[in-house]
Write a structure and sequence with these properties.
single chain; alpha+beta; Aminopeptidase; OB fold (Dihydrolipoamide Acetyltransferase, E2P); 19 strands; hydrolase
C-alpha cells in the first residue's frame, strides 16, 4: 500500500516516483497500459480459463485502485462501468495505477449464470482463496494475490440477483475509517453499513487492509444506462478523492443516509403465495401504512387478495421484479430515513418534479447544481 494513503491528496509536488505494477508473469511500467488475459484455471479439456484485466499505470505516483465486476456471471451493469473507465476515459494525467477487472467469473459469464457452473460455487464467497483447495478458491486466490493484494483500495460492482432489482447504493464496513472514506467518496445517496459475509471480496480485501466497497446497482442480465452513468460519476469522485485524477472534484450526491443497526430496515416478505401487483418501485419513498403491493391468485378473487403495507416510512432500496412468489419470498428491502434526510429527499423529489414539469411545458429548466 502507498505510504501516504492516510494523507489527503493536495495535488502538490511529491518526491516519490512511480513504480512498475507487477504480477505473476508480467509487469506494466509507469506511463504504460496493458490488456491482459490472465490464466486462473482450466476447462475440462485442459484449455486455459483467462480473465480480462486492464492495467493503467500512470506516469505519476499515487494509489493503486482496483475496479471489479461480474464476480457473479450474470451481473452485467458493472462490466460496462469498468470497461468505460478503462478504455473510454482520459488517464494521461493519472497519478497512480488502475487495475480494471470487468469479468472475474468467466465461467459464469459465458453461461450467463450467477455462480460458477462447476458444482454451483459462489466465487464471491471464496476470497481470498487458497492454493490446493476447491476450484472456486483456486480462482479466487489467483485473482486476489495478483490483482487485489497490490492495491490500496477497491470498488466491486454488483447487481441484485435474478428476479429483483436494487437502487444504486454502497455497502461498506463503516467502522473501518479508510473504508468509510471510500464509501463516502463514491457519493451514493444510500450506504448500508456492515462488513459483509465471509468470503466476499469486499470483506476479505478490507480485512487485508485494502479498504473496499460494494456498489449494488440494478438487476442481472442487462445494461441499465442511467445506473451505469451514475456509477461512473461515483468512480470519478473516488479517483478525485484519492488524487488519481487531481484535476477532478469529489461529487456530493445532494443527500446521504448511512443505514446501520440503529436504523429501521427490513426485507418485507410475502405471507402468501401468488401473483404480485407491485404498486411502488425501486428508489421510491413510501409512507407508513401505504400499500406497497398486492398478492392475488389466478382468479383475482377479492376475498383472497393480500395487501402488503409499509411498516414504517422509508426508501425502497431493493424490489421484486419477478411477479410470482411463494410464502417467505422477499418483496422489497425497505430502509428508514432520519428526519433531516427525509426532508432533503422530499426537497430533491419536489425539485425534480418541478424541473420535469418545466421541460414538458417547453420552458427552460433552472440549473439545480
Amino acid at each position: 500500500m502507498s505510504d501516504d494513503f492516510d494523507e489527503p491528496p493536495d495535488g502538490g509536488p511529491s518526491d516519490r516516483t512511480a513504480e512498475p505494477f507487477t504480477y505473476n508473469g508480467g509487469r506494466v511500467d509507469p506511463g504504460e497500459s496493458a490488456n491482459i488475459r490472465y490464466g486462473i484455471s482450466e476447462t475440462y479439456l485442459g484449455d486455459p480459463v483467462r480473465i480480462p484485466v486492464t492495467v493503467i499505470n500512470g506516469e505519476h505516483p499515487g494509489p493503486t485502485v482496483f475496479l471489479s465486476a461480474a464476480a457473479h456471471g450474470d451481473e452485467l451493469n458493472g462490466i460496462e462501468v469498468v470497461r468505460e473507465v478503462a478504455h473510454d476515459w482520459d488517464h494521461s494525467n493519472l497519478h497512480g495505477t488502475l487495475i480494471c477487472l470487468p469479468v472475474m467469473n468467466v465461467h459464469g459469464f459465458l453461461a450467463q449464470e450467477r455462480y460458477l457452473p462447476i458444482y454451483d460455487r459462489d466465487l464471491n464467497r471464496s476470497f481470498p482463496g487458497r492454493e490446493g483447495s476447491t476450484s472456486a478458491r483456486r480462482m479466487a486466490y489467483q485473482i486476489f494475490t495478483n490483482f487485489i493484494e497490490p492495491c490500496d483500495l477497491g470498488v466491486d460492482f454488483h447487481t441484485s440477483t435474478r428476479g429483483r432489482t436494487n437502487m444504486l447504493h454502497v455497502r461498506a464496513n463503516m467502522e473501518n475509517l479508510k473504508t468509510a472514506r471510500v464509501a463516502k467518496a463514491f457519493s451514493s445517496n444510500v450506504i448500508i453499513a456492515g462488513e459483509g459475509p465471509s468470503g466476499t471480496l469486499r470483506r476479505e480485501a478490507t480485512a487485508a487492509d485494502i479498504p473496499t466497497i460494494t456498489v449494488e446497482m440494478g438487476e442481472a442480465h442487462r445494461f441499465q444506462r442511467k445506473l451505469i452513468d451514475r456509477a461512473l460519476t461515483g468512480v470519478a469522485s473516488v479517483l478525485a478523492e484519492f488524487g488519481l485524477h487531481p484535476e477532478s472534484s469529489v461529487h456530493w450526491p445532494g443527500w446521504r443516509t448511512i443505514i446501520d443497526d440503529d436504523n429501521e430496515k427490513t426485507w418485507i416478505r410475502a405471507d402468501a403465495g401468488g401473483i404480485v401487483d407491485m404498486k411502488r418501485g425501486r428508489s421510491e419513498l413510501v409512507q407508513e401504512g401505504e400499500v406497497i403491493c398486492a398478492i392475488t391468485n389466478p382468479f383475482k378473487e377479492e376475498e383472497d387478495i393480500v395487501t402488503v403495507e409499509a411498516p414504517f416510512t422509508g426508501l425502497i432500496v431493493g424490489v421484486l421484479e419477478n411477479p410470482v412468489v411463494y410464502p417467505g419470498n422477499p418483496l422489497c428491502h425497505l430502509v428508514g430515513l432520519s428526519p433531516d434526510t427525509l426532508t432533503a429527499l422530499e426537497r430533491e423529489r419536489m425539485a425534480e418534479h418541478s424541473q420535469s414539469g418545466l421541460q414538458s411545458s417547453g420552458q427552460a429548466a433552472p440549473d439545480l447544481e
